[in-house]
Design a protein that fits this description.
There is one protein chain. Helices cover 31% and strands 28% of the residues. By secondary structure, it is an alpha/beta fold. The protein is globular.
């Protein structure tokens, strides 16, 4: 019987508030990846912080309700992070981001000990984890980092030497993406991956480029599509799958999320 693989997500969470409708959905990159990993059949935890406002308990109960371990989700006085969103032809467009208590989040030593008990740790650009990734990496756990569409953000480039799997969203042509992934790989990651929306994805392992398309589906809301790809990809890695198989699983996972409103 195959063992259950454990992913640790750490960093930002936020309520995605749709200004046009007044609807609010729990989200945030690491949170989303944790939820999708459980959806795929794995196990996941989430380490972060919420406020003591009305959104804090909602965030905690929603994440726990999806089967994610929230034993290291702290509550602090203040506001839970909120991201304001509008929909334009099915695409989500982000407006103001109120970071709330996440502004001062840092991993504790106890957090890092907990994270190192997992098979893989995922974090990202807005997680406030980059300054401490060297110490987390020293504990021997593989680290994945989502750099989003900020191709040259200083936080990402600070993180890359301590990252095993780097993910970017890139809308350039294929040759531009390949050149970019070469530059990312040279900073230290074992694998550099770019998602390209309807054009699929490209990955580079230092020797070979791999390309994969999409799984066609009816698009309701693009919220969480990239995080779904990352979850599917990383779940495949934890199970020892090839890079092309990981890309295919990421695309399948993304197509499910595209079919409903909100990240999950």
């Amino acid at each position: 019987m195959e063992r259950t693989h454990r992913l640790a997500a750490v960093g930002d969470n936020c309520m995605d508030v749709y200004d046009q409708t007044g609807e609010a959905y729990p989200g945030g990159n690491p949170v989303n990846v944790a939820v999708y990993t459980v959806r795929l059949g794995g196990a996941a935890s989430y380490t972060g912080v919420v406020g003591d406002d009305a959104y804090g308990p909602l965030m905690r109960s929603a994440i726990a309700g999806k089967g994610v371990d929230v034993s290291h989700l702290r509550t602090q006085p203040g506001a839970t992070a909120v991201s304001h969103v509008t929909l334009e032809d099915g695409d989500r467009v982000f407006g103001d981001y109120d970071e709330g208590v996440m502004e001062h989040f840092r991993m504790t030593e106890e957090d890092m000990d907990f994270l190192a008990e997992h098979d893989l740790v995922v974090t990202g650009l807005w997680s406030h984890t980059a300054p401490d990734l060297s110490r987390l990496k020293a504990r021997g756990v593989p680290v994945a980092f989502d750099c989003a569409d900020k191709l040259r953000d200083p936080v990402s480039w600070e993180a890359l030497p301590y990252v095993d799997y780097a993910f970017f969203s890139h809308d350039g042509d294929a040759e531009e993406v390949r050149a970019f992934l070469r530059s990312v790989h040279a900073k230290g990651p074992r694998l550099a991956v770019a998602t390209r929306g309807a054009q699929g994805s490209i990955a580079f392992d230092g020797t070979r480029f791999f390309e994969y398309g999409i799984v066609p589906c009816a698009v309701v809301d693009t919220m969480g599509a990239g995080d779904s790809f990352i979850a599917g990809f990383l779940y495949g890695l934890m199970r020892g799958q090839s890079v092309p198989d990981c890309m295919a699983q990421g695309a399948r996972c993304s197509s499910v999320t595209l079919g409903y409103s909100g990240a999950w």
